[in-house]
Amino acid sequence: MKRSLLIALLLLGLAGCSSVPQAPKGRITADIFQNEREASPAGREVAMHALMLLRTGYRFGGKNPEAGLDCSGMVTYVYQQAADVPLTGNAASLARQGREAGLEELKAGDLVFFNTLGRPFSHVGIYLGKGEFIHAPNSRGSVRVDKLTNRYWSERFETARTLVN
Q1: Secondary structure (3-state) at 104
Q2: How do residues 106-152 score in pLDDT, each as one tens digit?
Q3: Domain count, the chain
Q4: How many whole angstroms separate alpha carbon 51 and alpha carbon 159?
């Protein structure tokens, strides 16, 4: 019996080592962004280019501003235009690219991921700095800026990724 319990505890411990990083528990607060690191020139260019898309209409599967953009289409378009980084795929596939960044490491140009549809990494946006990000939210809206500290986004935040240094 003791041996079975010991093996079960060992397996649980090993499973924890291989798990997907968990989103921070609780709400995201503004104090996290007080000592924000400066973005690279490429990161600033990504953020500035994304801001030029404000109010662009939403279109599911949209990959260019003329036809409309969805969240992953906005990210792939901006990264191609601003940083010459070719990206493809939906939010979940974008979440597997680059390097993970903690909330306290966020810099302009980083990608922020959310669970908005009851499945991991179902939404993505571009971090702008000072706790704000830009994204194409849904068919009822257009490209806009929101705050990570907003309760809706804070509760759904999953991870961030850095693609440009």
Answers
A1: helix
A2: 999 999 999 999 999 999 999 999 999 999 999 899 999 999 999 99
A3: 1
A4: 22
Render pLDDT for 32-91 as a digit per residue (tens, 0 to 9).
Answer: 998 898 999 999 999 999 999 999 999 999 999 999 999 999 999 999 999 999 999 999
| Segments forming the whole domain that contains residue 85 | 28-162
Q: Residue 31 has what DSSP assignment?
A: G
Asked whether residue 106 is assigned to any structural domain, the reply reads: yes
**Separation in Å, CA 28 to CA 15, 54, 129, 136:** 27, 24, 14, 21
0.90 exceeded by pTM: no
Residue 20 identity (one-letter amino acid): V
Asked whether residue 60 is domain-assigned, the answer is: yes
Q: What's the token pair of residue 82?
A: 């601003």
The CATH number of the domain where 154 resides is what? 3.90.1720.10
Question: Which residues are marked as active site?
Answer: 71, 123, 135
Within the chain, residue ranges assigned H as helices are 2-17, 41-51, 71-83, 91-94, 151-156
Query: Helices (DSSP H) in 19-142: which residue ranges?
Result: 41-51, 71-83, 91-94
| CA–CA separation, 152 and 165 (whole Å) | 29
> What pLDDT score was predicted for residue 165?
75
Place of tokens 């493809």: 88
Residue 116 CA to residue 31 CA, distance in Å, equals 24
